[in-house]
From TrEMBL:
The keyword Glycoprotein does not apply. Keywords: Hydrolase. It comes from the Eukaryota. The keyword Metal-binding does not apply. GO terms for molecular function: hydrolase activity, acting on carbon-nitrogen (but not peptide) bonds, in linear amides. This is CN hydrolase domain-containing protein. Residues 19-290 form the CN hydrolase domain. It comes from Puccinia graminis f. sp. tritici (strain CRL 75-36-700-3 / race SCCL). PROSITE patterns: CN_HYDROLASE, UPF0012. Gene3D superfamilies: Carbon-nitrogen hydrolase. InterPro entries: C-N_Hydrolase, C-N_Hydrolase_sf, Nit1/2_C-N_Hydrolase, UPF0012_CS.
């Protein structure tokens, strides 16, 4: 499969923060689009435009929004951030629509021709890349029953935890997909000031069905952060079969799922993005109140109650 072959369906997460005096709240909007480079870009741009018109201040796109291709092709398809036409177009969309955007891409390596980086970007409303985070934990598993992966064969692991980034909706700590299974990094983000954690993802159907919601809720509860998880959904590759679980959602610090995209896959064959840029989109809304978050943290001060005299403090 080339980069222009269909990689069906991407769930898109959006975040909207209207101002109500001293109140800080947000609305989460989640939807579907297709996955190949050119068509997915068109659909991502459509989502950005429509969401901005609805009042969105920050938009979250999933892991690998540029493409999902067979592992052997990913390094050759990846581009550097400064040369990526996909990234440049998303930057332009952010600027044109006066909104912030989080997007997952494949980033070309300058040192390793056989592997690339799995990178999440946060782009400001001025169209400037404010932060690039490279996925730390790589998906190397073998669960049998045709559920196996060797992400480290074509992805270079990151070597840095980026600081929570100030954005219009709060301080955002970036993580990606399989990072969700490692609570240490989420707790470090909380210690460093995050009130929102993001997990752009492409969970498999088997692991997603078993663990996706449980892990997202656990990270929200233990860090007392809002958790936003945009997600890929549907079939990307036929041989070998590659499907994503979907169920993009937002979870509050109490562990309540505030919004989740309905598990409805669009029919095929799909129209081209030029024919219907809104094809396969779906939306879910939620309010997020950072003042309520602070009240919860004061009433249940988990950070202050940690026994760092007994076990190491995570910084």
């Amino acid at each position: 499969m080339t980069c222009f072959s269909p990689c069906f369906d991407v769930e898109i997460g959006l975040y909207h923060r209207p101002m109500h005096g001293s109140e800080y709240s947000a609305r989460c909007e989640l939807g579907y689009s297709r996955g190949n480079v050119v068509e997915n870009l068109i659909r991502c741009q459509s989502i950005i435009s429509r969401s901005a018109k609805a009042g969105a201040k920050m938009i979250f796109l999933p892991e690998a929004s540029d493409f999902i291709a067979p592992a052997s092709q990913s390094p050759s398809l990846a581009q550097s951030l400064k040369d990526s036409q996909f990234v440049k177009a998303i930057q332009s969309s952010a600027q044109e629509n006066n909104c912030w955007v989080s997007v997952g891409v494949h980033e070309k390596s300058a040192e390793d021709a056989k592997r690339c980086h799995n990178t999440s970007l946060i782009i400001s409303s001025e169209g400037i890349v404010q932060q690039a985070y490279r996925k730390l934990h790589l998906f190397d598993i073998d669960l049998g029953n045709s559920t196996s992966a060797n992400e480290s064969k074509y992805i270079i692991p990151g070597d840095k935890i980026e600081k929570p980034l100030p954005t219009p909706i709060g301080h955002v700590g970036q993580l990606i997909c399989y990072d969700l299974r490692f609570p240490e990094v989420a707790l470090i983000h909380r210690r460093r000031g995050a009130n929102i954690l993001i997990y752009p993802s492409a969970f498999t159907v088997r692991t997603g069905g078993a663990h996706w919601e449980t892990l997202l809720r656990a990270r929200a509860i233990e860090t007392q952060c809002y958790v936003i998880a945009a997600a890929q959904v549907g079939t990307h590759i036929d041989k070998p079969l590659r499907q994503s679980w979907g169920h993009a959602m937002i979870v509050d610090p109490w562990g309540t799922v505030l919004a989740q995209v309905p598990d409805v896959l669009p029919s095929s064959p799909p129209p081209s993005a030029e024919e219907d840029p809104e094809w396969s989109t779906s939306f879910a809304l939620a309010d997020v109140d950072l003042k309520s978050l602070e009240l919860l943290r004061k009433s249940m001060p988990l950070l202050d109650q940690r026994r760092n005299d007994i076990y190491p403090r995570l910084d």
